Amino acid sequence: MKRKTFVRGLALPLLAAGGLFAAGTGLVHAQAPVELQFYYPVAVGGPIAKTIDGFAAGFMKENPGVKVSPIYAGTYQETIVKALTAHKSGTPPVTSVLLSTDMFTLIDEEAIVPFDDFVKTADDKAWLGGFYKAFMMNSQTGGKTWGIPFQRSTVVMYWNKELFKEAGLDPNKPPATWAELKDAATKLTRKDASGKVTQWGVQIPSSGFPYWLFQTLTTPNDAILANEAGTAVKFDDPKVIEALQYWVDLGKAGIHPPGVVEWGTTPKDFFEKKAAIIYTTTGNLTNIKANAKFDFGVGMIPGNKRKGSPTGGGNFYIFKKSTPAQQDAAFKFVKWITQPERAAQWSMDTGYVAVSPAAYETDTLRKYGRDFPAALVARDQLPVSVAEFSTHDNQRVTKALNDGLQAALTGSKTPAQAMQDAQREADRILRASK
């Protein structure tokens, strides 16, 4: 996902060329290149382009007949629109990294093909079975695999250890429950002489991906927002309303910013000590490591009835309206870029979670984890993680939920009214999917 302090998208056209040797003539007849357009949206901080450029060069070195050229494409939201528009016009990308939550939408539009069609060898099968199960929740449905995890994440909690010390809190003991979070945030909130807050105790962003951050509250309250088939939602579940009430109450207590909190500025607020505790993607870890001029901690999301976070981020998809040769080349590239050593490198360069246990067994990531234990928190949270919210007609259903969340956070509706209204709208939208 997810998610947007520094927004940049890439598209990589892969040009595959082969050659035929004409016996007895000494002439080489070049085959027409196979062009594979690769949309690559990026929406986090970190040196993403440099890493992708390195992967492109590495793939070309191992596959001399293929040329990979990065092209900027936009955010996740812009890229899914571009991809579906191109699909409808008959000229879609061959492969693209799009949100894992776009799976149902892409299936409904008959825009993609399952990866199972390309899995032929024992090595292929071992590769497909090697990803973390938590990431496959948003990658498989109906007994088929539609997306391959790559740019994947969970939400984690970051805290400023220096500010904890100043507030009389143990800098190495972050809040582990809702009650502890509220207590710590109260002690960490500071005001100036005029009574204006200069340092918020806790900040949970609610723009960009409100539904995703809301899952950091519904999951610990033991509520699941949608069924696995993506055909029904439970926004009006009392446990969901209770989770939203907790979020609203943090604001009412004056220890969390009021109203809608910007996703993109939240890491910056952390750097500038305007917020002592923040929730954001693990995909921001490298960004925060590079820019925080103080000792900080990374921890799992505080629990209530249980622990847990939603997974997030992007999957590779292969588009239907492309030639068999293009699809085969795309499958080869996706398999190549998700191998353990490259998944390990990607995790170190970006902060995203390496998508397979095998990646964490590599020497490079083992050493990195020993030297920088914060890099392992998101991985360790996977056993209690749940699928990111996703349904059929996902963008419209998600908008209904996001609108409800923002109505409650701004005070224009009570949490109960906001979720009941969102439920009615989602039921109306999803009627066609049942």
Automatic annotation (TrEMBL):
Its main location: periplasm. It is found in: Periplasm. Keywords: Signal. InterPro entries: Bact_solute-bd_prot1 (IPR050490), SBP (IPR006059). The keyword Chaperone does not apply. The keyword ATP-binding does not apply. Residues 1-22 form the signal peptide. Belongs to the bacterial solute-binding protein 1 family. This is ABC transporter substrate-binding protein. It comes from Variovorax ginsengisoli. The lineage of its organism: Bacteria, Pseudomonadati, Pseudomonadota, Betaproteobacteria, Burkholderiales.
